[in-house]
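Chain X:
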Amino acid sequence: MQGILQIVKSKSFISLIGNGLGALLGVVTFALLARVLDKEIFGPYLIFLALYGIFETLRIGMVMNALVRNLAQCNNFEEEQEVIGSTQFITLALTAIYTVVIVVLYFVFKQLGLFTEYLFFFKWFVIIGILSAPNNYATWYLNAKLKIAAMSAVRILNQLVFIALIWFWVKVDGSIYSVIISYAISHLAVSILAVVMGWSGIQYLFKYTLTKITEVFHFGKFSMGTLMGSNLLRSSDTFIIGSSFLGSAGVAMFNVPSRLLEIVEMPLRSFAVTALPQFAKLYADKAYEALRFEFEKKAGLVFFLLLPIAIGSFLFADWLVLLIGGKAYADSAILLRVFASYMAILPLDKFAGVMLDTINKPNLNFYKVMIQLAVNIAGDYIGIAIFGNLESVAFVSTATFLAGMAFGYYHLNQHMGIQFSNVIKFVWQDVNLRSLGVLNKG
């Protein structure tokens, strides 16, 4: 009972609850929009989100991990101000560059008569890019300070404002303008709150230093590449299957069991989001032995927490696929069983990437993701060409993560003396409720 109480009180559990509520509200938002908007409106809105998401990914990749890592390693408030000011400077610089690019593209496309039905998107790309900056920065800052409850509240409030506007306005108006304006207002409302609460960091903008800006930029360029590579890794299967003779039907069949991986990744993200600032602090204090132990203990713990989910997914694959997709997707149960074979190793791969960032090796984390992307793309094409089925694509995913893990743990052993065997051994030797007490720290 004591071990369970420690888990419930931990920051990782609070993060898990916050991510869970956020995911649930995301589903509610999607379902609500699908019902109140015509397909001719809903489709373009999804295109708008996808295009805007590219910029958001670049901004998150460049700033977030660099802010979390550097802020966790500060020794005094003056250093914190320099880090916040420098990352704010980069955030605003990226937003300004993005604005210029969007404006130029708008006039070029308008002059050439291209994408005329979507030209109004460009105006809102700029508006939302500016309005969302304080809101997004607040979540990064609160993550770095391990104020997980406040960070979750910011994200959830953003979604709640959007849902309220959908219900009271978009449902009545039904136009794409109303939904995009509602999206912008939801960001504006939370950005105002972030500024008032002092979470936006804008008050420290002029505390930036060129040294910190350079340091953040060199770290962030690899972190940004890693995030972009991870996004491509997730979507590469869909693109390759869709472009092959398997077509859109194959994409649908493959994506139904893939949804279960998103459920598994939710708690994984919760543990990882609290691990980076903790690891970074230990590294800054040169507590290398404690860092090695904390990494091996936490990575092994999450592995064992997800292992029953992987086993359950394998055993009950037929029932789970029917629950998610219905009888039309019953044949994809075999795919879910293949996915279950590597569900449990996802935390081992994820934590390896977090640790490489921690020890100031974001370039190695970037190379790890690029190796995984190369293995996945090459394997998918070879598998489809030789076997011509979706099972081969699913098996390649296992090989992809194993390749990333091998690269990651090889370099962690070289730079930090981390033993992969310890990740499993330490938790296996102490599999009881007291072992879960490590979560009390995060």
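Chain Y:
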Amino acid sequence: MPAFVEKALRKSDLFADYRSRPEYQQNDYLGWINQAKKQETKEKRLQQMLEELEKGGVYMKMSHPASAKQ
């Protein structure tokens, strides 16, 4: 995990939410963020991941009921 991603997860108190997701989702998020060529795009993707983790019930803009928060 890139340091800037871990830092953002910890700062937003979403690290546990990230780790509670299935391994394939964790890998998808990291791969998707890292594949961006521009740092601006990486930051935008990171922000989307953080928003989805905070909201719960969403994965890559798709419904994911297993991660829904009560």
